[in-house]
Amino acid sequence: MIRVVAYLVPIRLRTRWRGCAGIALLLGLTLGPTLFAIAGARRTQSWNDRFLRSVNASTMSVASATGLDPAGDAAISALPQVASSRMWVSMDMAVLVDGSPDFSQQFEPSGTLDGEYFDQDRFTVRRGVLPDPTRPDEVAFNELAAERYGYHVGQVLQLGVYSQAQYSDPSFLAHPTAPAQRRAVTVVGIGLFPDEVLQDDADRTGRLLLTPAFTTGAAPYLTYGLRALVLEHGDADVATVTASVQRLQPPGAEIRFTSTDRLHARQALRPWSIMLALFGLIAGLAGLILGIQAIARLHRRDRAEREMLRAYGAPPRAILLSSLIAPTAGVVAGIGLAVVAAIAASSLMPIGPVRTVGAERGVDVDATVLGFGVIVFVVVLFVATLVIARLGSAERTATLRRSRRTSRLVGAAASAGLPPTMVTGLRMTFERNDGTGVPMRSVIGGAAIAIAALVAGITFAASLATLTSTPRLFGWDWNTMVMAGNGYGNIDAGQTAAILGADEHVADWSGAYFGDDTVDGLRVPLLGMQPASAVTPPIVRGRNIRAADEIVLGAATAADLGKHIGDTVTLAGGGDPHQVNIVGIATFPTIRRIHISHISLGVGAIVVPELVPGYDRDITGVQGTNLGPHVLFVRYRPGTNAHDELVLLRSTTAPLAGFAGIDILPPQRPAEIVNSSSLGGAPVDLSIALALGAAVSLALALGTSVRRRSKELAILTALGFTRRQLAATVAWHSTAATVIGLAIGVPLGVALGRGLWTLFADQLDVVVEPIQPLLGSIGVILAALVVAYAAAVLPARAAGRIDLARLLRAT
User: Fold this and answer.
1) Phi/psi at 84 (nearest 5 deg)?
2) Is 383 exposed, middle or buried, given 0-12, 13-18 or 19+ CB atoms closer than 10 A?
3) Are 757 and 463 in contact (CB under 8 A)?
4) Which of 188, 311, 440, 454 gets the highest tally of CB atoms within 10 A of its CB?
5) Distance between CA 743 and CA 4 in Å, rounded?
6) What is the pLDDT of residue 309?
7) Mean pLDDT of 262-277
8) In this predicted model, what pLDDT tens digit does every residue of 85-124 receive, in sequence order?
9) CA-to-CA separations, 361 to 340, 354, 527, in angstroms, rounded
10) Which residue stretches of 125-257 are H helix?
């Protein structure tokens, strides 16, 4: 037996090398993207945790309500749970042009006295180098400031530092006085602060990194600061340290937790990971199905050889082992090609802007995914190969002979007088001829799977494009936001009514207050709005509040609380608890007060203003009863030019600015939407790779069919078929299989794409509205028909080269 198998190995590899190569190419095209996508999903989802470790990220930060508080900072830093403590500070500063401050260049100075952003929460340099902490004349800008104002590495700037008294002088903007300090600095780096990689549009602001040496020299003019803490046991120490901070700090101290930012980052990354994993699994399933089909076709080609070996008395086990030679070679080569392709393409992961930040660049070998994937592929394909071989080795000539089964479709085509080439092509597709035909059902199934994946990818991509370009879907059910003092100031209600009421382009507006409170033990950002508000975030389930004892939650907040519509929750209310009923679930816009947690998509709650702690306190801390909202949501009338109206509002709302200043902002995208837009055509690209695999499968099946039907084609030639007619017959053969695949795959792909999009959108907590692009679906149909014709080219040439005399002599 061993001698027989050893004798057959080189013969089978030499005579079946095309089939082996086809299987290898097919598996490489389909299983390679599977490994690549699943490994990319893992790499993308785990990016944030690795990045935070690489920059030595803080666990939490504390900002005193009274500004700089050296004694309180020292007490907080001395807490036993604190492993490391660094201070971020700011000051009033401007770029000097010809000795005068240029107020058009707006950025936030980020200084430090003890190394924040240098050895803790490290600044990531994208161009240039990190400033030397000991040099007061070196600075770095973040990428937004560099892009907005044209800063570049090597540029020399004059910076002016001003005292609070100078900046608060009402005449300062019109008649600025000389800076308290003046210093020439060189821009040595452009990069990102840790919280900027996955960032909401609302958080984007120009920032300047100053060295400890610069900050120490400007110490008399510091105005504000945040104490950043790395805790010994990470999040496990947060509750204890928070309680200690509340004892050590006066009321109103603001605390920000890195875990909250990490949650937002995971939410921003999770949809990408889910999408990649799902498309990877779909590609893997389709690849295995197509691969098994190709193995079965290759095995059927060896039927005559197996009969010959059986006639010569070869042992059944030798016949079985000989049947495994060619498929095994193709499977091994295909899996190896898939692994190589996945590793080579791994540098494209993770998806989005995080790919070029930190240590994420370059080739990555995910041993877990590759190892597990190879094991699964080997087991499935070798088991399938063995089953196919065992079934084949048990066959007998008598059982292989089957009577022709005439297809009703073929009969109808013949009765209708359709061209012989078309009727013959349909017969080759749908009929078996005495065991010589190649059943195309498996090819049709493979084509249907590939077409479904491609249509699903196009549906997903179209829905994604609609989401990123439709603000209503991510919480902005209005056109413009008017916000006072970065969310800390108040807007006079009377002036608002006069200004907006006189604007013919404004349809409605509503005011809202920012704040946060503990809801059933969970800290939740709040949006305080009147029950009769005309403009509110979109309610996806239930309704908006109508009374003071009602609340609307974001989907993520409701899930964290384990609550549903109709349940009751308790707001702590600073010692004055209130029970409220959940009446709706909303998709929240991304709007914020700087440096603290804010509502976004599924995170937050809507209550009446009176339930928002401090809603009647303005930026100076003074209590009042007539203070207006912190923000206005403005909706335009249909047909209004959004850009022109935004420019107009920036002019007409100037009287609302007051002490705190005012911002008129277009829709602000959350990090989830900003980063989801970078997915681009990734779903389509993965689907195209799968479709290429299906095209290879179709070409292999057609080649096998032509070889198995060579006698039938020779007879047609003898009856007068020309080479062109033979080619047309093969083309109809290919087209018929593809058309059936389209009939199954297109509706299946629509359903699959909509289902995948619904899952993706639910993970984002946005309004779910899947889009089905008609032109895209038509494009898939046309492309599939072109591919069917292209796949038939080589088999058609082979049909035209059949040696009629030699073949008929052999029969």
Assistant:
1) -150, 145
2) exposed
3) yes
4) 454
5) 47
6) 62
7) 73
8) 999 999 999 999 988 998 888 888 999 999 999 999 999 9
9) 18, 9, 40
10) 143-149, 164-168, 212-217, 238-248
Task: Give the position of tokens 């989802």.
Answer: 45
**Phi, psi for 602 (deg, rounded to 5):** -90, 5
pTM of the model: 0.69
Alpha-carbon gap, residue 628 to 615, rounded angstroms: 9
Question: CA 62, 63, 66, 71 torsion: positive or negative?
Answer: positive
Which token pair is 534?
């005309």
Describe the crossing of helices 258-301 and 316-345 by its angle, rounded to 10 degrees.
Answer: 150
Q: Render pLDDT for 681-704 as a digit per residue (tens, 0 to 9).
A: 566 666 676 666 666 666 666 666
Contact 225, 75 (CB under 8 A): no
Closest Cα to residue 157, out of 98, 220, 216, 90?
98
Q: Which residues pair with 551 in a beta bridge?
A: 582
3-class DSSP assignment, residue 771 = coil
The token pair that represents 466 in the structure block: 């609609």
CA distance 356 to 182: 36
- What was the pLDDT predicted at 738? 83
- What would the two tokens of residue 111 be? 């200084």
My answer on whether omega of the bond before 350 falls inside 30° of 0, hence cis, is yes
Highest mean pLDDT among 121-125, 344-348, 613-617, 732-736: 121-125
pLDDT digits (tens, 9 = 90+) for 345-389: 888 777 766 766 765 567 888 889 999 999 999 999 888 888 887
d(CA 54, CA 583): 43
Please state, in angstroms and rounded to a whole number, the distance separating the CA atoms of residues 2 and 498. Answer: 97
As a whole number of angstroms, the distance between CA 14 and CA 17 comes to 6
435 has pLDDT over 60? no
The tokens describing 279, both together, are 């498309």
Radius of gyration of the chain (CA): 35
Secondary structure letter of residue 654 according to DSSP: G
In whole angstroms, give the CA distance from residue 63 to residue 327.
67
DSSP secondary structure of 219-273: GGGEEEEEEEEEETTGGGGHHHHHHHHHHHS-TT-EEEEHHHHHHHHHHHHHHHH
Model confidence pLDDT, tens digit, residues 494-508: 888 999 999 999 999
